[in-house]
Amino acid sequence: MPRLIKGEAIVEDGWQWIEDKAAKLADLPAGPVMVPLALWQNERDGLLDRNGDLGIWLDSDEEAETIADDLEHFGVIGLHFPAYADGRNLSNAVLLRSRFGYRGEIRALGDVARDQLSYMRRCGFDAFQIPAERDPEQEIAGLKVMRDYYQGDVLEPQPLFRRIARPA
Length: 168
Known about the structure:
The longest helix is centred in the first third of the chain and has 13 residues, at 37-49. Helix 3 (114-123) crosses helix 4 (136-143). 28% of the residues lie in helices and 20% in strands. The radius of gyration is 17 Å and the shape is globular. The chain has five helices and eight strands; from the N terminus they run ββββαββαβαβαα. By secondary structure, it is α/β, with parallel strands linked by helices. A hairpin with a 2-residue loop joins strand 1 (3-6) and strand 2. It has a single domain (3-163), classed as Aldolase class I (TIM Barrel), CATH 3.20.20.
């Protein structure tokens, strides 16, 4: 079972990720669910009437713009990485935070690895669903590798030279 990292801690995950893109509203379990974009597009009204928290997830070939007008309905937005080398959802995270102003949880799903976590956090992710075969303690170490960057990012828009106080 995958584990969830939020901040720099392993936490219980109360959300159920509905991975089946062909899922129907009637198939959803009770409680908080992250539904695929296709289900949201086909069953929007029914999902809004449903009891339980609602989240959505986007695959790497789906655009954040498609949900921009509905962000207030989602407690979590999952961005799926089908392969380690597929970074397209990094752009979606940046857009969700910077252009669309989403302040809820953005969760990395799929092939999420230690080497990417620190950079993902800089793009706006604040939660990482770690595959079951990986040690979450080792993955958390990936978040601690670098704490300060020269360039600005979603978390700290100012570049380092602007953040450093210089004597007059």
